[in-house]
Prior knowledge:
This protein is an alpha/beta fold.
Amino acid sequence: MNWHLDTKCIQEGWKPGNGEPRVLPIYQSTTFKYDSAETLGDLFDLKIGGDFYTRLSNPTTNAVEQKVAALEGGVGALMTSAGQAASMLAVCNIARSGDHIISGVAIYGGTFNLFNKTLRELGIDVTFLQPGASDEEIEAAFRPNTKLVFGETLSNPSLNVLDIEQYARLAHAHGVPLIVDNTFPTPINCRPFEFGADIVVHSTSKYLDGHATALGGMVVDSGKFDWQAHADKFPGLTTPDDSYHGIVYTEQFGSAAYITKCRTHLMRDMGVAPSPQNAFLLSQGIDTLHLRMERHCSNAQKVAEYLSGDDRIAWVNYPGLPGDKNYALAQKYMPHGTCGVISFGIKGGREAACRFMEALKLAAIVIHVADLRTCVLHPASTTHRQLNDQQLAEAGVTPDLIRFSVGIEHPDDILADIRQALDTL
Length: 425
């Protein structure tokens, strides 16, 4: 059935049969029993599908993967132990030592470090692009060995909106896919595949889980990119894999070639698997995702409007504000709301920002974002601490930037907390 997204949040994934549990069970087992050695061998050779070891697949994890794939509109998904692992696998599935990737610079600090340090140490070079880069600037970044383009639909924490259609058009003109991190808007507010993106990644620890209880990540494959049409660029997908007796992923798995290789090759070898318990908690969180995102956005809109009218505030970034530099793009890609995160600066700079955060009573200072409780953070000294001053400026992380993650408490209580904290300055 062609259900609405709200219904998919609840009904997709686990589909119990006659006499089975109504709620997704936790299959807390590392392995699964088979009566035939031949069957187990066929599973190892990818001749048949099935669960035999939880590092590769597990019924609880499978259900939540199917749910997220349905929400994004993809052919398949792979859950990982954390969002960082999802980004790592998404890139390394098609980029090798000697290759090159292109990424927006306004991304989560952990992802920037992954690309700028770890991938470079693995022999994968990267070119970072400024937000709002022109066609000419993006074109100039491509090289013969470029394998993908990466960006965040809504950047953490600067809240720049990616022009998905622009990046997809230019990536496809060079025969490479566009990978986007859709963590902040979630598939409730942004549908990257509908605008040309090919692969989506999530830190499911954020809004998808929604309760700050379970780490996780997700890679979702649209199934739309034609790997075979660019076979010379992606030999891992289009030439025989000797570790599976010479199978060719594009021949054996068709539109699901990318996500199948991600699981059977990289998850097999890197082992960044989620626990069934965390998969269960994630599924429980997604059940109410559509309700929570509506409240997050409505609360954040009220807070952004309040901050914009307070003389003690130096500036506010929130794409839902008509005067915001990203408002037009947000209306195009996220017309029903962006997320609950706001970035702003207080007059008085970094020192005033720290005093403001310490004076908050409802909002907590935590190394987290995007769950149902209001929280606050100073990215320059925490999540983006490894970046130098130039890199911070390029990422849009100013010394006075406060990342305020608006929860789903009553908006009057959130506003009262902000007001009393400002009054202490």
